[in-house]
């Protein structure tokens, strides 16, 4: 177990180091007095809610040095969340002045917030308090390492912090410690050396710094997933989808599986059905249920595998691929990949088959981007694909998915969707009351009859838009109080 020696005192070489603290494992996403960052000894003095000072060393004893009314007090560190051990060590080594927020308890002063302060004119961080809050948020979102608030604290956030400079990237790597995946941590060290080297070209240094900024700004999370409320999940599905009980049942089974294992299923979902049946809508609903960011890959627009894998740094205009950019935009490694038109994945026009690239992403063994030159973990990626014709999908791709086929809606289902969902939604958007735009029973039959030969409900939604707009026109121009559409009016309007 390491001992924090933050002093520059070399006169105590013969003094045995005394480690006053122990580390504890925690995966808490928020820090409270009950789930603190660390605990200080308060047996001799009760510390104020806000305490200012710096991490220091009192004759090789891990401690915090308080400043209070011109007096200096020192308290030993008793316990440290293992995720924050490197951060506290780094703050002490650099003599960063901080303000602690904590609460006195029987077992010590429980610290749950740390902020940089200008007290004493000490060293400033690379981005001042923004970096510290960014660092704390990242550590809270990570897994545990292997071995009553005041208003002034309410707006603390590192959300706007971005790691772009070499100094901030270096600081982050030091503080993150082993909370970063091992291969990414080693990769980052190599690229940082390249970015600082004067023996390589400016182009190589620029690429290395850019790659570091992209990689370090992504929260590389574990594959542990919190339990999902099945009642809330079912509510979301019912709000977004009419009918489709078999589809909803399959999704609920996936949710229950996640709740039992706390990991994503080994297979993604492939939604197969005619255009307009709500495949993309289902995918977005699942992302909402999982509470994950999502990104869309439209395979019909991807003609070359390099669009997915990125280009090599040997080119001046090199850049990461779409998949790595998706991680960067999401800001984390756990996300839903919505792969639209999977049946078009094998129709590449470039130097290879984009479908082959997808296989490495779907295997959840890691994905290597040519620009990043590093295998990134994909255990937190949940793929949801859509397709119109599964016969066009290769067997290897099909084997990575649980296939759910969506039949087209029946005429009766289309009636319900049009009258209960599509039209009311349009009326609300146009600020029309239901009594101002009425569809007679024969008018509804005429709408469904008009689109009898089309699949899905997109045409129905467009028809609802057309009818509502016509009603609004008649009300505003002809000064009518309401418009009722019968079969004849509908047919004339939709011709």
Concise structural overview:
The protein has 495 residues and is of the alpha/beta class.
Layout of secondary structure:
Blueprint: E1 22-24, E2 38-40, E3 50-57, E4 62-68, E5 71-81, H1 85-93, E6 98-105, E7 108-116, H2 128-141, H3 166-176, H4 182-196, H5 202-216, H6 230-240, H7 245-261, E8 268-272, H8 279-290, E9 294-298, H9 306-309, H10 322-330, E10 335-340, H11 354-362, E11 367-369, E12 374-376, E13 381-387, H12 395-398, E14 401-405, H13 411-429, E15 437-439, H14 441-450, H15 458-477, E16 483-485, H16 487-494
Parallel strand pairs: 1-5, 8-13, 8-14, 9-10, 10-13, 15-16
Antiparallel strand pairs: 2-5, 2-7, 3-4, 3-6, 4-5, 6-7, 11-12
Helix pairs in contact: 2-3, 3-4, 3-5, 4-5, 6-7, 6-8, 13-14, 13-15, 14-16
Question: What does this protein look like?
Answer:
- This protein is α/β, with parallel strands linked by helices.
- The chain has four domains: 22-134, no CATH class; 180-216, no CATH class; 230-405, P-loop containing nucleotide triphosphate hydrolases (Rossmann fold, 3-Layer(aba) Sandwich); 411-494, Helicase, Ruva Protein, domain 3.
- The protein is 38% helix and 18% strand.
- It is built from 16 helices and 16 strands.
- It has helices spanning 85-93, 128-141, 166-176, 182-196, 202-216, 230-240, 245-261, 279-290, 306-309, 322-330, 354-362, 395-398, 411-429, 441-450, 458-477, 487-494, and strands spanning 22-24, 38-40, 50-57, 62-68, 71-81, 98-105, 108-116, 268-272, 294-298, 335-340, 367-369, 374-376, 381-387, 401-405, 437-439, 483-485.
- A hairpin with a 4-residue loop joins strand 11 (367-369) and strand 12 (374-376).
- Helix 6 (230-240) runs antiparallel to helix 7.
- The protein is globular and about 90 Å long.
- The model is unreliable at 1-15 and 148-159 (pLDDT under 50).
């Amino acid at each position: 177990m390491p001992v924090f020696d933050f002093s520059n005192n070399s006169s105590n070489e013969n003094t045995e180091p005394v480690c006053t603290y122990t580390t504890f494992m925690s995966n808490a996403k928020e820090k409270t007095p009950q789930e603190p960052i660390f605990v200080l000894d308060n047996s001799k003095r009760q510390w104020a809610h806000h305490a200012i000072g710096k991490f220091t060393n009192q004759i090789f004893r891990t401690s915090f040095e308080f400043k209070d009314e011109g007096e200096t007090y020192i308290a030993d560190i008793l316990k440290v969340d293992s995720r924050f051990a490197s951060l506290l060590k780094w703050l002490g080594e650099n003599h960063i002045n901080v303000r602690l927020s904590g609460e006195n308890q029987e077992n010590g002063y429980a610290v749950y917030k740390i902020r940089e302060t200008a007290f004493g004119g000490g060293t400033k961080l690379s981005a001042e308090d923004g970096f510290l809050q960014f660092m704390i948020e990242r550590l809270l979102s990570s897994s545990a390492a292997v071995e009553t608030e005041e208003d002034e604290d309410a707006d603390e956030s590192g959300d706007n912090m971005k790691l772009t400079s070499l100094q901030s990237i270096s600081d982050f790597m030091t503080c993150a410690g082993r909370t970063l995946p091992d291969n990414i941590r080693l990769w980052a060290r190599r690229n940082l050396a390249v970015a600082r080297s004067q023996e390589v070209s400016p182009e190589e240094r620029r690429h290395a710094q850019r790659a570091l900024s992209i990689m370090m700004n992504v929260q590389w999370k574990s594959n542990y997933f919190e339990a999902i409320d099945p009642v809330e999940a079912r509510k979301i599905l019912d709000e977004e989808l009419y009918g489709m009980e078999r589809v909803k049942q399959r999704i609920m089974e996936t949710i229950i599986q996640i709740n039992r294992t706390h990991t994503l299923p080994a297979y993604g979902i492939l939604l197969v059905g005619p255009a307009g049946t709500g495949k993309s809508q289902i995918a977005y609903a699942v992302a909402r249920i999982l509470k994950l960011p999502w990104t869309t890959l439209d395979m019909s627009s991807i003609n070359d595998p390099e669009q997915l894998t990125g280009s090599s740094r040997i080119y001046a205009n090199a850049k990461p691929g779409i998949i790595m950019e998706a991680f960067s935009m999401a800001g984390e490694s756990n996300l839903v990949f919505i792969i639209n038109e999977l049946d078009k994945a094998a129709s590449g026009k470039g130097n290879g088959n984009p479908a082959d690239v997808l296989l490495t992403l779907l295997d959840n063994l890691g994905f290597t981007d040519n620009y990043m030159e590093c295998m990134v973990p994909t255990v937190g990626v949940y793929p949801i694909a859509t397709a119109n014709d599964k016969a066009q999908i290769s067997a290897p791709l099909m084997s990575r998915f649980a296939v759910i086929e969506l039949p087209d809606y029946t005429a009766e289902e289309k009636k319900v969707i049009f009258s209960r969902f599509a039209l009311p939604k349009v009326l609300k958007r146009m600020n029309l009351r239901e009594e101002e735009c009425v569809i007679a029973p024969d008018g509804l039959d005429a709408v469904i009859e008009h689109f009898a030969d089309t699949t899905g409900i997109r045409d129905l939604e467009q028809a609802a838009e057309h009818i509502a707009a016509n009603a609004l026109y008649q009300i505003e121009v002809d000064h009518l109080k309401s418009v009722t559409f019968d079969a004849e009016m509908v047919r004339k309007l939709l011709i």
